[in-house]
Amino acid sequence: MKRTRSLRLVATAALAATAVLALGACSSDDDSDSSATTTMAPDTTMAPAEKNIVETAAGNEDFSTLVQAVQAAGLAETLSGPGPFTVFAPTNEAFAALPAGTVEDLLKPENKDQLSGVLTYHVVSGEVLAADVKPGKVKTVNGAEFTVEVEDGKVFLVGGTPENKVEVVTTDIQTSNGVIHVIDGVLLPPAAG
Questions:
Q1: How confident is the model at residue 191 (pLDDT cuts 50, 70, 90)?
Q2: Does the pLDDT of residue 181 top 90, yes or no?
Q3: According to the model, what pLDDT value does residue 25 have?
Q4: CA dihedral of 144, 138, 102, 65, whole degrees rounded to 10
């Protein structure tokens, strides 16, 4: 767990160094101020990644539940495709924090559509880096929106209810077909009405 805390501290420092954060490319608001400047976090330039999103997640033990869910939902092939995609990836701890039995129920074959809906709520079309993020609504591959909020230099995503608020703890994990941002909770899409 010390490694997770270190990653969170590095991510927090990187987020604090980023002056303007948003999912600008995906925001439904077009009120962007072209005169605003964006400060990049230090050392965010990386060599081109060789592994795709699924391979990258599968290579990190903190994402084993996510990888299992992606496979159970039949999304591994799609998320291994050309993309680009931006994935807000919940850790194993994030899935474990859900009410008891939730993950097990979602992984049942008869709940494949519901699982797919939850997972695609964590995916945005296109590659959105931390430097491109700003507060506002973001449309997901699921079709529903979540909200990006910035508080004290930290980035939060708010899902289908105000209580469903998660923090972005690590940003800009580059893959060959997009980028992964790590979140400390599971986003739940709005209930179908």
A1: confident
A2: yes
A3: 33
A4: 130
- Whole-model pTM: value is 0.74
The residue that leads in pLDDT, 83 or 68, is 68
Token pair 């997972």 is at which residue? Answer: 119
| DSSP assignments along the chain, one per residue | -HHHHHHHHHHHHHHHH-SS-B-TTTBS-----TT---PPPTT---PPP-S-HHHHHHT-GGGHHHHHHHHHTT-HHHHHSS--EEEEEE-HHHHHTSPTTHHHHHTSGGGHHHHHHHHHTTEEES---GGG-BSEEEE-TTS-EEEEEEETTEEEEE-SSTT-EEEEEEEEEEETTEEEEEESS---PPPP-
Record the tokens describing residue 153, joined without a space: 């230099």
Per the listing, tokens 């701890």 go with 93
- Pairwise CA distance, residues 29 & 135, whole Å: 9
Domains of the chain: 2-16+49-183 (2.30.180.10)
pLDDT in the model for residue 46: 46
